[in-house]
Give the backbone structure.
Amino acid sequence: MNLSALDWCVIVAYLGGILALGLWVSRGVTNSKKFFVGDRAFGKAIMIAQALGTGTHSDQAVGVAGAAYTGGFSGIWYQWLWIFTTPFYWILAPVFRRLRLVTTADFFQIRYGRCYAVMYTLFCLYLLALWQGIAIKGTSETVSAITGLPEWSISVTVAAIFTIYGVAGGLVAAAVTDFVQGIFIVLLSFLVIPFALPRVGGFAGLHHALSPSYFRVFGGAGGELSAFNVVILVLSGLVGIVAQPHMMAVASTGKTEWNCRIGWTYGNFVKRLCTIGWTLTGVLAAVLIPGLAFSQREQAFGMVVRLVLPAGLIGLMTASLMATVMATCSSFMVDAAALFTENIYRPLIAPNKNDRHYLGVGRAASVLITIAGFVCAATMPSVVAATVHSISILPFIGVTFWIGIIWPRANRYGAWISTVASAIVFFAVKDHGVSNAWASLASLLIGFIGIIAGSYLGAPEDPARMRRVFGYLQVPVGDEHLLPEAESE
Amino acid sequence: MNNTHEDQNGQASLLRDLLKLRSTFAFRRYRVDVIGFIVAWLFVLAFIAFYWFLSKWT
């Protein structure tokens, strides 16, 4: 056991405080709309925190610090790839909000029919369980390395806490606790630096101790990402981001359209700022604990924490690491519950029940998805492999979302052809030993060709329904009296 | 083209109208999208510039 009594006090106070806050804000959650989308009443600060908390987990910090340990400043691109997709969130946020829907599957249902929506829902339930598993496993490994506690005890503790407040308060509890946990995520990112930098003699000492290649921002010591890889990853990320099941909550639950834009875009810019802290931590670790093998580089973050932080702050860092997983998993849990309840249970299993019934089902589904996340965590061979896998498969569906919001002619035949063909091409090409980047490019091209060809070959969707969808996309929430004019355009 | 409420407030969606922008584009119609998108790209450039200067800092 590596923790002092002071560290334990900090951790217990943090976990107890988050649980109490989550339960306190849950008091007013009495209907399914509030549970799943928080009544769309969140302010800018909560929206920023929600985007930061949901999108940030400790394995990202550990991965970037590890890449910077071997690759120097250029290691930042493992996460900063997404900096080029961030401006697009500004113009995507109103699209999600104007749809006025609870889940992204609702969009696929009105756009491409129930079968496609059910396929998307099942795909997302798998994805959210996998992502919960990635977050729980990644954080438990790091916290275990710092504290000496067994991984299973960390996993069970954090899962029990976020499940209790998430089941009680749904998205309201997840978003409000994200606000506090967002502060801890920023702390996690920069806490090591003021203690480690003096030990190496400041920035001058860093330059003296490491080779110049460590300080190249582009193509530095690691050289692991080629320009082609970067372009394809950015393109895949942009196409796939809209298919991520939690984006409907992150992008559309603000009180105003402006809050949604600010929250999604600038919450992610806060994450980009935190990424600089993760990279500096990795570069400092390269000086303070040299000699780690490439395969051990992701231990650098935990080792430098133990080396430089005093008693009390190690507890604060441990609490911050736990904050990342609780913020992420509580949101994923509610998103999965919304998908199951609204897109599987309500339409296919038990229609026409009262709202209290669906709220209960949502709460039960929350517990089940966390258990599924545990199964994923226990069975996945590697966090990195699982992350790459999940990023690679998102564009199969992202293509149909993008085309669905810009091209009224797109129909369900095109959507199915696009998704099935791009998945087949991706896995077939990968099976022949082709790199992930080339497989993604081939898959994207087939996806776009498939939806265009299929949409021209198959019958169009109901024109009145399409006019309604595109009318909604034109009119902000609150201006519904303008819908007839927008639908006629 | 109708002169809708969204035109007057600059809140029309660039994405929704992407395929017909050649005929519909007017700055006043897409003002919120265009300005916010440009500002966000300026943030991207500022982040990269700051990070580059940090890497050279001694």
Q: What stands out?
A: Residues 151-190 of chain A form the longest helix (40 residues). DSSP finds 23 helices and no strands in chain A.
